[in-house]
Amino acid sequence: MPVPSIDAGVLERGGVRLAISGPRATITLDRPDVLNAQTPATWQALRHIGEQLDPDVRVVVVRGSGRAFSAGLDRRMFTGEPVDGEPGGLGAILALSPEEADARIASYQAGFTWLRDPARVTIAAVHGHAIGAGFQLALACDFRVLAEDAQFCMAETGLGLVPDLGGTLPLVRLVGYSRAAEMCVTSRRVKAEESLRIGLANSVVPADGLDAAVDELVAAVLKPMAGAVTETLALIASAASGVDADTQLAVERAAQLRRLRSFAALSAQS
């Protein structure tokens, strides 16, 4: 299937819709009839967006249409029914060689991991269910703004699987080992109020105020210079990775020197 150009500002592929307005991109999971359940085509579309998005886009908002953010994997992935024109669902991975199977899952993960690139700020606007792959998509973003009806659930273990779309690391960093282990092993629902209390959510707002709250956050993150935001996100990611204090201080010095050189270059041009 030909891939539409993102340069035009709009992409609709794999149940994913992209709209670009200046420095803001909005990605919408657009399969409301199945609560935005995800398939390999979803992940391919997300990966394509990450690979092709214009570098002038500074903020990416991820949201779901209809009643939910995303209810997780499309049920056909478990039944062996054809999905996205390919037979077998998850079971088809077993027919591949170990190297091919690993590469296949890595390609799925790539639809999520680019959202953590400090080159831009990413915001999940979550309402209704964010289950399994939906929860992991929200975790891939820098910020999570929740409507009061939002519910997170890491459902994979209850289905005999494991979370494999990059969600375990940010979950542990956000809530700690014990809480993350309990949430994953029990597959319980975590409501918006608890999410805010334990650090999963940056804010919780009434359902009819979600769009306005996200717009306000987008405006706030666009105020600082782009280079300063990118460098700061990279610094925070470095600190979260557990580096020692001396290493972090060195990383901060290097980042500040890059900013000062950038200022000097701008002054020389004026």
UniProtKB/TrEMBL annotation:
<dbReference type="InterPro" id="IPR029045">
    <property type="entry name" value="ClpP/crotonase-like_dom_sf"/>
</dbReference>
<protein>
    <submittedName>
        <fullName>Enoyl-CoA hydratase</fullName>
    </submittedName>
</protein>
<keyword id="KW-0443">Lipid metabolism</keyword>
<keyword id="KW-0456">Lyase</keyword>
<dbReference type="InterPro" id="IPR001753">
    <property type="entry name" value="Enoyl-CoA_hydra/iso"/>
</dbReference>
<comment type="similarity">
    <text>Belongs to the enoyl-CoA hydratase/isomerase family.</text>
</comment>
<dbReference type="Pfam" id="PF00378">
    <property type="entry name" value="ECH_1"/>
</dbReference>
<dbReference type="InterPro" id="IPR018376">
    <property type="entry name" value="Enoyl-CoA_hyd/isom_CS"/>
</dbReference>
